[in-house]
TrEMBL record:
Molecular function in Gene Ontology: kinase activity
Residue ranges of domain Carbohydrate kinase FGGY C-terminal in the record: 277-475
Name the record gives this protein: ATPase
Domain Carbohydrate kinase FGGY N-terminal: 17-241
Keyword Repeat applies: no
Keyword list, A-Z: Kinase, Transferase
GO biological process entries: carbohydrate metabolic process
Family according to the record: Belongs to the FGGY kinase family.
Cited Gene3D superfamilies: 3.30.420.40
Length: 544
């Protein structure tokens, strides 16, 4: 579209809005009906560690959404000289799962418990055994059952529970609904019925400790919808929540809310069988759309759903890029002290380019970027650690390569279960996330780590909110197409991408690093058990 056409689309509401609440940033993306981004806005935020819980306040949720929306709206006004008065369709996505529980008066009963909390190990283990289906610690049902095991008083008063994306969608539309992908992280889904597994619902309600409560779990959960269905419409109250200036009018079609895994699949066109994608950020996850059920239950592999309801094998890791960002911040401070002011992209590019001079195994250096616990490696409490022996080759190239290697190490360990134990194959594996804004280096390391070709698309750094905007457009008019066909025929017709294949030397070097990484995990466990851990956690929370 040209400038005149875009201005007309804005004025007539022929646009779609995607808002994604990530772990460190809330981002708003506005697209036109040709699926091109015309304006963006963002707001940086951080989780808090309060009373042993990683959380965000609901006040910060709305502050962040409003600031992000305002920044996007200001860009529209600046570029196209038009105020945003109406939007055709809107979609909300957010970090997956966690625990938001409300009473009959819609009051939040306990602070939001995010995916980052490793506090539900007992519940996850018991439910996995009861269901014969892997229940990860971050899933909503694990949080609920752990609260029951803890005999927490609020459990008796629960009337409704949802995810962060479900909460925001509820407040702007009045509808308690979830997209099937996000819903599959609350409670297991039956792929045949497209809703929660009745067999497992019954098993949960019949657990001895659950029977005493006055509710049945199904009544607490949001309604499940698939991509292409409408989840409601923007209410007047919801329009004012998004835009306190009250320019935005009600009536926009609302798409079923999704988790960031779902938007990652859409943003990388990875919703068909034998396709896969990897999203990296504060956390990281890989998604492989399955041709057939897994042979057995794996504690490090989750079974979730694509936004249109196909089964996906998911490897989710709690820690990825946070430690890289922390070290980059230190290098930036040093550069500033020398009078050199580097933009973030130039800083990361300079650091990552150093890896071309490194040893394939990173010189015997090992790093654990665990800002929080890590389920994949059975680490309960995170302690960022850099470890070396007196004989390690300690130089800048090896140090930076170690940071990249460690960022992907838990993901590799989980992915090895899929490739070696389940013999899962993919035709394509597409990666997205901020690390891939710096071309080639992180992409090549990931390819070597997984021993797979890795493709990065041109939108690698911003796929999530854009993917949610696409889902919102699809909810408004699917053109009678299934989601995979819609993406192929309409959205990804001229997408640019680059694919890198594994390097034999790099693959061998990463394998050696992984062996060292696994052998040193006991150090990480010991560090997490040291006294004074509460004070250490508070320091970590402030530094994220």
């Amino acid at each position: 579209m040209n400038l005149v056409e875009i201005s007309k689309a804005i004025a007539t509401g022929h646009t779609s809005l995607g808002i994604e609440l990530g772990s460190t940033r809330i981002k708003t993306v506005l697209i036109t009906e040709d699926y091109k981004t015309i304006a963006t806005g963002s707001y940086n935020w951080e989780n808090q560690y309060q009373d042993g819980i990683w959380t965000y306040s609901l006040d910060d949720v709305w502050k962040g959404i409003q600031n992000s929306y305002a920044a996007m709206s200001a860009e529209v006004q600046s570029k196209y000289h038009k105020p945003i008065l109406k939007i055709g369709s809107i979609g909300i996505s957010a970090m997956m799962h966690g625990y938001l529980a409300f009473d009959k008066a819609d009051k939040l009963l306990v602070p939001f418990r995010t995916w980052r909390n490793n506090i539900t190990a007992d519940a996850a283990k018991e439910l996995t055994t009861a269901f014969d289906f892997n229940i990860p610690q971050r899933w909503s049902i694990a949080h609920l059952y752990q609260a029951i095991l803890n005999d927490e008083p609020h459990v008796a008063n629960i009337n409704f529970m949802t995810t962060l994306a479900g909460y925001v969608t509820w407040k702007i539309s009045g509808v308690k609904v979830l997209g099937i992908g996000d819903a599959s992280g609350m409670f297991p889904i039956d792929e045949k019925t497209g809703s929660y597994s009745q067999n497992m619902l019954d098993k949960f309600d019949n657990l001895k400790l659950v029977k005493k409560y006055p509710w049945q779990v199904e009544d607490l959960l949001p309604e499940v919808k698939k991509a292409g269905e409408m989840a409601g419409k923007l209410s007047s109250q919801g329009a004012n929540l998004l835009d306190p200036t009250k320019k935005l009018t009600a009536g926009s079609i609302i798409a079923p809310p999704e988790g960031d895994a779902g938007t990652g699949m859409v943003g990388t066109n990875s919703v068909r069988e034998r396709t896969g994608n990897i999203s990296v950020g504060t956390s990281a996850f890989s998604m492989v759309v399955l041709e057939k059920p897994l042979k057995k239950v794996h504690n490090n592999i989750d079974v979730v759903m694509t936004p249109d309801g196909s089964a996906v094998a998911m490897v989710h890791v709690n820690n990825c890029s946070s430690d890289i960002n922390a070290w980059a911040g230190l290098f930036k401070e040093f550069a500033t002290r020398l009078g050199v002011h580097l933009p973030a992209d130039k800083l990361y590019e300079a650091l990552f380019l150093e890896t071309t001079k490194s040893d394939p195994d990173a010189g015997g250096l090992v790093n654990y970027g665990y800002q929080s616990g890590e389920n994949i490696t059975d680490i309960k409490d995170g302690r960022p650690l850099f470890v070396r022996t007196p004989n390690s080759k300690f130089n800048l190239p090896n140090f930076i390569l170690t940071q990249l290697y460690s960022a992907f190490a838990p993901l590799k360990i989980g992915m090895d279960s899929l490739s070696k134990e389940e013999n899962i194959k993919t035709d394509v594996m597409i990666a997205q996330g901020g690390l891939f804004k710096t071309q080639i280096m992180a992409q090549q390391v990931l390819s070597n780590a997984l021993n797979l070709p890795i493709t990065v698309m041109e939108n690698a750094g911003e796929g999530g909110p854009w993917g949610m905007a696409i889902l919102a457009m699809y909810a408004k008019d699917s053109h009678g197409l299934k989601l995979g066909d819609y993406l192929d025929k309409n959205v990804f017709t001229n997408s640019e991408s680059m694919t890198l294949s594994p390097e034999p030397t790099g693959v061998k070097g990463y394998e050696k690093f992984t062996q060292q990484y696994i052998s040193g995990l006991s150090i990480e466990k010991i560090a997490g058990n040291l006294k004074g851990e509460n004070n250490a956690r508070k320091v970590e929370a402030r530094s994220l």
